[in-house]
Amino acid sequence: MADEVSFLPLGAIIQSFKVGGIDIVQGFPSQELYESHNSPHFGATIGRVANRISNAKIEGLNGGKTYSFVANNGPNTLHGGKVGWGKRVWKGPNPVGLRKIPGIEGDLKGGETVEFTLTSEDGDEGFPGEIVVKVFYTAGKVAENGKEVTVLGQEYEAELTGGAEETVINMTNHSYFNLSGGPTIEGTEVQLCTNSYLPLSEWGIPTSGPTAYSKVKTTTPFTLGAEEPDFDDCFIVDPSSSPSSVPIDTRNLPLTKLVSAHHPGSKVHLEVLSTEPAFQFYTGKWINVPAVGGAPARGPRSGFCVEPSRYVNAINVEDWKNQMILKKGEQYGARIVYKAWKD
Prior knowledge:
Strand content: 35-45%
Order of helices and strands: EEEHEEEEEEEEEEEEEEEEEEEEEEE
Shape: globular
Helix content: under 10%
Number of helices: 1
Radius of gyration: 19 Å
Largest sheet: 9 strands, antiparallel
C-alpha cells in the first residue's frame, strides 16, 4: 500500500492517496513545503479543537474557569489555534500490524496499520490538561460490485492524562479531494447524506440548531461548477437525534456514508464515511497556494473537504457541549473511512 497512500509526521498528514493513477488529495512533495506553504491545512489532523470556537474563549470548564485562546479567524479560534495539532510533529508512522476496518464489508486485503502519537501539553495553545492522542491509519482493498476499492481507515483515540479534570477536544482530517485529475473540482458530481445544517454567522459560528439547507438539494446528486455552488457549511447527519446524546467516543457507532462523489471525466469515485454526528463540507473557495517544489499552484476550488466532527462551537452551546468535553478516566474516539475506486 506504500505506493498508494503516504503520511508525514508533521500533522500526521495524509500526503497522498492514489486511485487509478490519480492522486486524489492535495499536498506537497516534502514535509518542509507543508511547513512553509500549507495555509489550507492540506491533509492535516486537526486538533485540539477542529473548526471554530466563538470569541476565542471557553467558559465554565473545571469548576467554572474561563480559558482564552488566540483569535486566528476574525474573533474566533480556528483549528486549534496558531500551532494546532496539524502543525505539530507527531511520533510515527509506527507499524502496528494488520487490522480490520469495522463496518467495511467484504474481505479486506492488506490492512497494514500505522500509528502516530502526540502529547499535547497542559496549556497547549491555552487549552487545559495534558492529552495523549493517537491516530491509526489502516489501508487495504476490498472487492465491491466487481471493482477494486481502495480503503483508508482513520481512528482517533485520546486521553486526558493530567493537569485538569476535564478539557475539550474535537478532531478531524482536513484532506482536500480532487477527483478530476485536473486543476479544479469543476464537473464533480456530489451527493450528501443529509440536507440538515447549522446556519452560520459571517465568521462561521452557528446561529441556531439544525435547519434545512435550501440553496441546493443536497440529498440527490448535484454538480460542482466553476464557482457555484459554494459550500463552507456544517451538515448534521441525523437531526432527529439529540445533540446531547453524542458520546465522547463515537467509535462503536455505525459508519454512515456522509458524502459520495465522482468525476465523469476521470471516472474516479470517492465515499467518505464516519461515526461522527456532523461534517463540514467545504468547496475550497479560499485556497491560494503558489507553485512550489514542483507542485503546481492551487487556487480556489482546487479541492473539496469533508471534515467529520462534532457540531461547530459545541463547547459554547449548553445542549451541545458534552460532545466535546473529555474528562479524566474517559477516552475520546472517532472513526473516518475513505473509499475510492476507478470505473
